[in-house]
Amino acid sequence: MEKLIIKESLNNPKVILDPAKKRYEISGKSFPENAKSFYQPVIDWVKTVPVTSPEKIRLSFMLDYISSSSVISVKQVLSKIKARNTEGADIEVQWYYDPSDPDIKELGEEYEKVIGIKLQFIERSI
Amino acid sequence: MELDVLKDRYSDLLNRYTGPAKKIIVSFHGEMDQDRVSMLSYTAEHQLETQGARRTTIKKTFNILIELLQNVLLHSASQEIGKPFYFLLAENMEDYVAICANVVTNEAAKKIQETLDIIKKMNEKQLKNHYLEVLSNDQYSAKGGAGLGLITVALKCNNNFTFNCTPLDEKVSLFEMTSIISDK
Fold this sequence. Notes:
The structure holds 2 protein chains of 2 kinds. Chain A contains 3 helices and 6 strands. By secondary structure, chain A is α/β, with parallel strands linked by helices. Chain A has one domain: 2-Layer Sandwich (Transcription Regulator spoIIAA). Chain B has 6 helices and 5 strands. A 5-stranded antiparallel beta sheet of chain B has the order 1-2-3-5-4, with helices on both faces. Chain B starts with a helix and ends with a strand. In chain B, a hairpin with a 4-residue loop joins strand 4 and strand 5. Chain B is α+β, with helices and mostly antiparallel strands. Chain B has a single domain, classed as Heat Shock Protein 90 (2-Layer Sandwich). Classes of the chains: A alpha/beta, B alpha+beta. At the A-B interface, helix 2 and helix 3 of A face helix 2, helix 3, helix 5 and helix 6 of B.
C-alpha cells in the first residue's frame, strides 16, 4: 500500500492516501474532464489495501461539489471498497456533508442504497 | 456555415436578454476546453454571489452549468473547428436562465432528443427514480458520460427546461438547451 497524492485543481479534488501519516481523504470540487481516468489510481490503490491482519483505515470524502460523471466514478471507488472489505480489509468511509446543502448527503444515501455500503455521515460547516 | 449559425444565434440571444428586468450575468461564444468549463462556471458562481442570489440557487446553477458545459466538451462534433459553442447565463425577472448550444452529430441529436422527451414527461419522483436506475447501471458511454448529466440538469431546474435540435446539414445539428432556475 503506497502513498497516493493528487494535487487539487480548479476541477479536480485533492487526494491524500498516505499510510505513513495515516491520512486518507478526498476533498474539494470534482468535475475533471475525464472522471474515469482521474479516479482509476484511487481504485487501484484500494486494491492494494491489505486483507490479512488489516489495520482500520478511515477514508474521508469531503466533497463540495460533484459532477455527474464523477458521481459514477466515486460509485466505482466505493464499490471497490465494499468488495475489498468483503475480502477482509477494514476501510471505513466517512462521508462529510454541509447541512445547508442537501445534495451531498443525499448522494451518500443513494450510494448506500445502490451499492449496499455503509457510510459514516459526518456534518461539517463550510 | 456552422460557425455563422452559432454567431448569428449568439447575437440574437444577447439582444433577447438585454432590456428591462433582464440582465446578462455571463456570456461567451468561442471554442470549448476544460479550462473554459472552470472559468465560466466559477465566474457565474462569483457573479451570483456578488448580486446576492440565494445559496441554494447558486449551488443549483453551478450544477447545471457544469453539466451543460461538460456536455459540450464530451459531445461536440464540429466539422469546421474544435468545439464551438455559445453560452449565456442571464437574470430574467425572478429567474435565472442558462442557455448553452453546440454542434452535435445528427445521430447524437436524435438520441438527445429522445432522452429529453422522456425526461420532460417525468415528475420529480419519477426523475429521482430514473436517476437511481441510471446510477445503478454502471455503464459509461464511449465518450465518458453516463447519461446522468441530463437527468441532473432536469432535477436541478425542476424539469423547467426546453431544447431544440436544428439540422445544419446531412451530418450535424445545432443542439441548444435552456434551463430556468427559480430564485424564489
